Amino acid sequence: MLKDLHELARQVEDGMCVVLPVDYAGVSMAMTRPLISHGARNLRLVCVPTGGLQADMLIGAGLVGSVETSAMSLGEAGGAPRFNQAVKDGTITIHDATCPAIHAGLLAAQKGSPFTAMRGLIGTDVLANRPDWRVIDNPFAESPDPVVLIPAIHPDIAIFHAPVADRFGNVWIGRRRELASMAYASKNTIVTVERIVDHSLLADEQSAAGTLPALYISHIGLAPRGAWPYGLWGEYPVDGAELLAYAKAARSAEGFAQYVGSTAMEPAQ
Which among 14, 55, 194, 218 is placed 20 to 30 Å from 89, CA to CA? Predict the structure, then answer.
C-alpha cells in the first residue's frame, strides 16, 4: 500500500469530490505540491468542517471548482488570501455550511442513508443559500416541528496525514474522529504518515481504539513532517512563521506562484 506521493496524487481526477480535514486534525500538506503538479481540475472540496492552507493553495493553483465549508482561514495568520480573491472574482462556487451540517452529511453517508435531519439550522441565513437542503415537518410530531434535511456527503477521495501506520495498512488517528468520518464516507482514502511500524496497531490494546482499520484505507504514503507547516498532535507544533510567510506572499497571484515554485514548502527535517 506504500506509494510515492506523486503516484498518490494521480488518483485524483478532474471533477472529483475531495474531503480535507481541519488544520489541527492532520492535514496532508505533503500532498499539496503533488496535487498541484498533477493538475486535476474542477475539484469539489469539502472541508471538515473548516478549510485552511491546503484548500487555499489548491484554489490558488486553479484546481478547485467549488468549496463546501463552514469557514476558511489561516487562523492567526489571517484570512485565506487566494480563497478570498476567488470569491471576489467569482471563479469558485461556495456551498455555505455549518460544522454540524458537514459532520451530519458525512455521518449519513457512513450509515448508507440518503440524508439526515437537523434542527439547529432553523432560523439561520445559511438556509437561504442552500437550495439542496430541505425544510420539512417532523412526521412523528403531533404539532408543527420543522427540521432540515441534509443530504449525505459522498466524497470520492479523503486525504489526510497521521502519525503512524503499520505494515498491514492500519492507521492510528488517536482522538481525531473526524478523520474516521471522512474515511467511512469516502470511496477512497489517501493517508500520508510520519512512519511505518511492523507490529499491528489493532493488536495493541493501547492503540487499537484510535486505529482506523486498513479496510477503510486505499493508499498510504510515507511523508515525515508531512503536516508541516501545520502541526501534528504529539509530533511537532505549528510553524506560525511559515504560515505568516505564505499569507503575505499569497496576497497576489504573482506572490502565490513564486511561493509555490520556491523551496518554501519543503519542511526542515
Answer: 14
